Structure formats: C-alpha cells, structure tokens
Amino acid sequence: MKKIIKNALTLTMVTMVLVFSGSSLMAQESTLPQEVINQMEKVVDDNAEYIQDIFKDLHANPELPFQEVRTSGIVAAEFKKLGFEVHTGIGVTGVAAILRNGDGPVLMYRGDMDALAVKEETDLPYASTKIATDMDGNESPVMHACGHDANTTFVVALAHTMVEMKDKWSGTLVLIAQPAEENVQGAQAMVDAGLYTQYNVPKPDYFLAQHTAAFPTGSFLATDGRLTTGTTHIDVTFHGIGGHGSSPHHAKDPVVMAGMAIVQLQTVVSRYTDPEEVAVLTIGSVQAGVEHNVIPTSSHLKLKLHFSTNEVMDKMIKGIHDICNGIAMANGLSEDMMPTITQSGFGPAIYNDEALMATIRSATERTGFVKHRVDNISVPGSEDAFALIDGLEDVKGAYLFVGTAQPKLFAEAQAEGKEFPFMPHEPTYQVDLDGITFGSKLSALVALEILQK
C-alpha cells in the first residue's frame, strides 16, 4: 500500500479520539446475533497461536511481487485442508478459494501477499534476512515493510473461523490471496488470467479487504465514499536521432524533448482535469544518454498518476499523449518516430459503500475488541484491490485500515513528538501479534454480518 495514514489521519490519531457516534444510515444497523459475535471471538482466540505462527513464518520468508510461490503454497495448503475449492497460479501466483455453504450472497475477501526490496531493521526474533532478485535482475534484501504478511494471514484466519462457524452463516465465501500489490499489477493480472471466466470464481455481491496501519491495535478507519485515489504507471520513450554534441543541428535531441515534456506535462493536472477532482502526475524517473558529448537516440520518462475516478485517468492519459506527440512533431519527427507511450499497473480509486460501512460501524459498536474507530478520512495513496471488481455491477465494497501497532510503541512515539512509531515501507515497520488477532476478528465480524442466516 502506497503512502497511507498521513496528513488528516494523523491529526485525528494523535489524540486517539474515541468515535462511536453512530451513523446517519441507522436503517443499516447490525442484526448479527450477539451470541454469534461472542462465539466468533472465542474461535479466533482459540486459534490465535496457530494463526500467529503462520504470520511469523510469512514475515521471516518474504517474497517480491509475482514471486510469492512459497507464500501462495502455504495459503493454498491451508485452504485445501479446510475443504475449500482451491485454484492456484492465477495471474502467476494468485490463489482463489471457494466455500459454498447454502443459499445467500457471495462475499469475496482479499489479502495481498508481496513484500518489498527493503532491508529489515527490527529486532524481532522472526525478522527477515532474505535476499532476493527482482524481475529486473536486481538483488536486494527483502522484508514485509507494509504488512502484507498480516494481510495474508487475515485471509487464512478468516478461512478457519468461517469453517468452524459454518452453521452460523449461509452463502458463498471467496478468498483471494493476491500477488503484486506493490506494483499495482496483481489484481488486474488475476482478472486478466480468467478469474471469473477460466476459473469460474463466483462474482461477488460484497467485497472486503483489510490493510495494516501504524496506529494502535484495536483501532480501525471506517470511511464511506472515496477512501483512496486510483493509480497507474505511464512510461514515455522519446525517439530521436543521435549525433555529436558539437553538431546538434544534425540530430533530433530526445533529451530536449524530455525536458520540454517535464514542464508541459504539469498542465495535464491544471488544464486537462476538473479542479474539483483529484489528479496528481509525478515524474519519478528521467533516463537518457551516457556520454557528455553524445546526443542519444532516446530518452525515457516514468510517470505515476493518481486520480479520483477512471474518467479522470482517461483525461490525464489523453493529455500525456497530446503533449508528448506534439513535442515530437514540433521537433520535426516523422509519424513513425512518435513517442512510445505504455501503461502498466492499475488500481481504481476505492469507494466504500455507504450502507455497508454503516453496518460495519454498527457491528463494531457491539464488540469489546474494537477500542477506537476513526470515520470518514480519505488518504492520498492507492492500492489495486478494487481492480478485482472494477467493471462489475452492484458490488458493495469495503476496505478497512486496521491498527496493528503495539499501543505501547504508539504511545512512546507520541511522547517523543512523532506522528507514528514507523510508517509503511520503512525498515522498522512491524505488526503487533495482538494486531493479527484483532484483524482476524474484524474480518470475521464483517463476514458473519454479511452472510448471516
């Protein structure tokens, strides 16, 4: 997950205001019997040590995007042991598990599996010491610096809980262990590989995902409406005619074209998009040439887009094409030498269903394990979970940020004037073991609420 829990959320979490104010959608109050909630908590508590051991193993053995072979194998084995219909290798390493339990709605729950090229700097006894080579051939240390080990563990925990409580719910549970969230490619890869066609995974009526966050265990973020921005990656390669640095008139300089683009692309946000929408264009990489006195034959820009809707994304991409092609034409290049512009990775903006979120809020108010709740804060980052349901009609989705930082560490950080004890993608990022149990209970509570008899 990219750059979560910052800015506005910080202001709320610094004081850790207890928010149990109810909802304007009171018709969506929880109807799950209290005895079912109590039974669920006991089941999760009874399985806590087993589930935490799985988490420790995943943390100690992280794998990079599209390399989650060991991780997906562990998850698939747990699903098979519990009697799920299991499909593996979807979108390279993705796993889908199906449990049909009578009539009722289809709930899809997703957890992401991949880690990051970060060297771990925690003192955890199960800290990662792994070294891996990424898809581009770069070797680096690897750790779960974003909590995807916990997100994956939540999926396994939910499988165990729902199997043990099969007599308390009715419908179909679909569990997804997704690869490659960090490069926002894994969810779309699973869909493109035939998740709903070749593998015949039931299309969901409800969709749920959770992600760890560096606020205290026992707290969670419950936003209805837009929670995150969407994101995609754009690569632009300008083609030119190389030459000697002393004779630029004999060349067509792609470095100059890239420089023009860096400036002009800023108008994609200011002139192509509605100011009331969210639109961010970041140029994260500029690559061209090797020698001082050689005009190269190409230059390359790597762009990162964030947007509030897919329509905004389309307008931004059109602007990129218009500007870059215009620069090439202004530099006298022929049509067959227009820039090469490619898109990779996609995560739509996450919009949480208002009625479903009202029900979730109501359900959590009936528990003892939820200590704090923060309502209706959007975050600037992005994630590709909702690409699994993008384009499907009438799916009610919910994405929850789950506090998994030890309360003691959070309090110590606050006392030192820090916003959080650590942030995602930092080498000190860690997940409280009690946070594994908390997230397991929260996902089971929502699943049982949705699929109750």
From TrEMBL:
<protein>
    <submittedName>
        <fullName>Amidohydrolase</fullName>
    </submittedName>
</protein>
<dbReference type="Pfam" id="PF01546">
    <property type="entry name" value="Peptidase_M20"/>
</dbReference>
<dbReference type="InterPro" id="IPR002933">
    <property type="entry name" value="Peptidase_M20"/>
</dbReference>
<feature type="domain" description="Peptidase M20 dimerisation">
    <location>
        <begin position="232"/>
        <end position="325"/>
    </location>
</feature>
<dbReference type="InterPro" id="IPR011650">
    <property type="entry name" value="Peptidase_M20_dimer"/>
</dbReference>
<keyword id="KW-0732">Signal</keyword>
<feature type="signal peptide">
    <location>
        <begin position="1"/>
        <end position="26"/>
    </location>
</feature>
<keyword id="KW-0378">Hydrolase</keyword>
<dbReference type="Pfam" id="PF07687">
    <property type="entry name" value="M20_dimer"/>
</dbReference>
<dbReference type="InterPro" id="IPR036264">
    <property type="entry name" value="Bact_exopeptidase_dim_dom"/>
</dbReference>
<dbReference type="InterPro" id="IPR017439">
    <property type="entry name" value="Amidohydrolase"/>
</dbReference>
